[in-house]
TrEMBL record:
SMART domains: ZnF_C2HC (SM00343). This is RNA-directed DNA polymerase. GO terms for molecular function: endonuclease activity; nucleic acid binding; RNA-directed DNA polymerase activity; zinc ion binding. Pfam families: RVT_1. InterPro entries: DNA/RNA_pol_sf, Peptidase_aspartic_dom_sf, Retrovirus_Pol_polyprotein, Rev_trsase/Diguanyl_cyclase, RT_dom, Znf_CCHC, Znf_CCHC_sf. Residues 457-635 form the Reverse transcriptase domain. Keywords: Endonuclease, Hydrolase, Nuclease, Nucleotidyltransferase, Transferase. It comes from Parnassius mnemosyne. It comes from the Eukaryota. Its EC number is 2.7.7.49.
């Protein structure tokens, strides 16, 4: 006989949930069901329950953390320890305080919820006076409202967080009471039948005059079937003025009077009826929600009491979640019974919030529906959704919207490519090469130490006691004063590695995809190479020797000879085949002939990158630009232009005094030789100096060619327009 457990244990997806919270919940679930060291001395049962509750992506993570062992053989306590180490990195005080001071109250978030969320952010801030910091940020981070204005006028001496929350709630309640008292609707208006029949006025319908008195509208929502004091939208936040107590269409701050469209009252019956309601134009209200890290499009249907998905969707994405016997019977508008095969509890992520909903799975269902349970849980204001029903499909999504839809991609964390690990292959005659650590300047020692600590904390570097291969490091001082550590593999392992022959695309091949582009989005991968994991064998070859000892790279690193080709092959495999998408190493450029095409291509690329486990460096990304710098060119809808910075470098170059300097100059010039039709003849004297057996002698003809090519490149030549195909 199967065991009956108390409570429901939801699944864990590390992309949208916190391990610390989930660990506490699963421990409480084990406690409630008496699963402990006595009843489960080996921990096998707890291990099986935990692993079965992991999402697919999190299970893969557990497998990787357990290597070289099989995760199904690792003790339960060890799995917990793996997750603790992985999800609870070393605390960085200023980072935590930045998150605290950057937090602000969200639309729909009550004052109590805002205070509770803020308190949770202080756990790692190490404040000396937590209550004072909480009080200050609570008030400063509040949304613009009457409550905030009145709190700013309070005496700060004796004002605590508790008093501030209580004061704000009192002001809100007083404001709601004032709104309610303004309504003079007759009490009998609320006693009408709970069922409403909505009819569309067709061409043959006659206008019927009524002698009944006109009912006064609710000051909160605008309907006439109840008082404002009984309105269920009384606690909603207006999206026009951000004040609690009314919907946007009843807001007086915008000075626009609401016009009753005569559509009738809303059916507020929650007995499990599923009504498919559409707008007058037949266009569905569609919203994107995230479930277990995947994006789904649902239709919002206020006629449905519950959230519904078809059985086909359940089988394709959630079949591993057991069905629960439904506690409601579902009926259509006509009274016909709808076959419900069961319910599942799913964590739904929407507008930066996550709630667990009971989702009904129906047989032969239509599109997924977000019902009134979703609307109520997420405090969705339908008037704002209705205002976007006729949303122009050609409008480009805002950056904030993209960050919400792809939270992992814009998380500012180091990504991890999930498709495969990188393998470095040695030549047959390869022999271990070990270099001692090079001496470093004392002035750079602390900076190098900080960078080593940072890379270890990120998991890019890992200390080792001994190694067969070791390469010296070259510290490079960046403009901001920090250090970039570069391994000098040119003297060690690069000579013994088999180089991937995957070709990098030429600029001409790339820019052919730009044909017809209107505006441009440029994406930059955060620490691009470091997002690709090395397999265990390859990590042995990447060891660096420092003044603090040996470290091995666990990720692909700049300086390894095969790295560019390996990275390019992977990126081409992900997004190389998409139209209007250019990719050369960590720089991705996206365009389209119109906004709709641009938006569709951008979302497709972002979805692909997120599914592959990669992340972007938000600060370096550029969205919807009329003109961008890419691969040394300035690109706009008219074509390609020369980069002013590169042209300046060419113009300012002194006359070369040897072959090496001449080769460097010609390398710069050749980048833009397509802009000079006669480049070959102009440069001919310079190339003659590079011929075998020619003695170096800089003469007048060389100087004239040198000067002329500079003038031609510096002139305003017509832009080069990429051709299609």
């Amino acid at each position: 006989m199967a065991n009956s457990y108390f409570g429901i244990l939801s699944s864990f997806n590390h992309d949208i949930q916190e391990w610390k919270t989930y660990k506490s919940r699963i421990n409480q679930w084990f406690l409630a069901n008496e699963i402990n060291n006595t009843t489960d001395p080996s921990g096998k049962k707890r291990r099986a329950i935990l692993l079965s509750a992991l999402s697919e992506g999190t299970y893969r993570l557990a497998e990787n953390l357990a290597l070289p062992k099989d995760v199904q053989e690792v003790p339960y306590e060890d799995i917990l320890r793996f997750f603790d180490i992985h999800f609870n990195p070393k605390i960085v005080g200023f980072t935590e305080r930045h998150n605290f001071y950057a937090a602000s109250q969200q639309p729909g978030e009550t004052h109590s919820q805002w205070a509770a969320r803020l308190r949770g952010l202080t756990s790692r801030c190490a404040f000396h006076d937590i209550e004072e910091a909480l009080r200050d940020r609570f008030i400063m981070g509040m949304m613009p409202s009457l409550e905030k204005e009145k709190l700013y006028a309070q005496d700060i001496t004796n004002l605590t967080l508790t008093k501030a929350v209580e004061f704000a709630e009192n002001v809100r309640c007083a404001k709601s009471a004032a709104i309610a008292s303004a309504s003079t609707a007759d009490a009998s208006a609320a006693s009408t039948s709970a069922l409403y029949k909505i009819r569309s006025r067709g061409k043959g319908a006659r206008s019927v005059k009524s002698d009944l008195p006109v009912k006064q509208k609710c000051k909160v929502c605008g309907y006439t079937n109840h008082k404002a004091s009984e309105c269920r939208y009384a606690d909603f936040v207006c999206r026009e003025c951000n004040v609690v107590g009314h919907l946007r269409r009843m807001c007086t701050s915008n000075k626009v009077n609401y016009v009753d469209n005569g559509a009738g009252d809303e059916n507020i019956d929650d007995d499990g009826k599923v009504f498919k309601i559409r707008s007058l134009r037949g266009e569905p209200m569609v919203e994107t929600v995230f479930i277990q890290g995947m994006a789904f499009k649902f239709e919002i249907d206020s006629g449905s009491a519950v959230t519904v998905i078809p059985e086909k969707l359940y089988k394709s994405h959630f079949k591993d979640i057991p069905l629960i016997v439904p506690h409601k019977r579902l009926m259509s508008y006509t009274g016909d019974s709808i076959t419900c095969v069961g319910t599942i509890r799913l964590p739904v992520y929407y507008t930066n919030r996550s709630h667990t909903l009971d989702v009904y799975v129906v047989r032969d269902g239509g599109p997924p529906l977000l019902g009134r349970d979703f609307i109520s849980t997420f405090q969705l204001e339908l008037s704002s959704v209705l205002s976007t029903v006729n949303y122009c499909q050609g409008t480009l999504p805002s950056v904030e919207e993209l960050q919400c839809q792809f939270p992992v991609l814009f998380s500012d964390k180091l990504g991890r490519f999930t498709k495969h690990k990188v393998h470095l292959q040695l030549k047959d005659n390869a022999k271990p090469v070990f270099f001692k650590a090079r001496p470093i300047a004392f002035a750079l020692r602390n900076k190098i130490n900080n960078e080593l600590d940072r890379m270890v904390e990120l998991g890019v570097l890992k200390p080792v006691d001994h190694a067969d291969y070791a390469s010296p490091i070259v510290p490079v001082l960046k403009r901001n004063g920090t250090i970039r550590l570069c391994a000098d593999y040119s003297v060690s392992i690069n000579r013994q590695l088999i180089i991937d022959q995957y070709p990098l695309p030429t600029a001409k091949e790339l820019f052919a995809k730009l044909y017809g582009g209107k505006n441009f989005t440029k994406l930059d991968l955060s620490m691009a190479y470091n997002q690709f994991e090395l397999d265990d064998e390859s990590q042995r070859y990447t060891v660096i020797n420092t003044h603090r000892g040996l470290y091995k790279y666990t990720r692909l690193v700049f300086g390894l000879a095969p790295a560019p080709a390996i990275f390019q092959r992977a990126m081409e495999g992900l997004i190389g085949g998409q139209e209007g998408v250019l990719c050369l190493l960590d720089d991705v450029l996206i365009t389209g002939r119109d906004d709709a095409e641009h938006a569709a291509r951008l979302r497709a690329v972002l979805q692909t990158l997120q599914e592959a486990g990669l992340t972007l460096q938000r600060e370096k990304c550029e969205f919807y630009k009329d003109e961008v710098n890419y691969l040394g060119y300035v690109i706009n809808k008219n074509g390609l232009k020369k980069s002013p910075d590169k042209i300046k470098a060419i113009v300012d170059s002194p006359a070369p005094s040897n072959i090496s300097q001449l080769q460097s100059f010609l390398g710069l010039v050749n980048y833009y030789r397509n802009f000079v039709p006669s480049a070959a003849s102009v440069l001919s004297p310079l190339y003659n100096l590079l011929k075998k057996g020619v003695k170096w002698s800089w003469g007048l003809d060389h100087h004239e060619a040198f000067t002329k090519i500079k003038l031609l490149l510096a002139s305003d030549q017509p832009t080069s327009t990429p051709k299609q195909g």
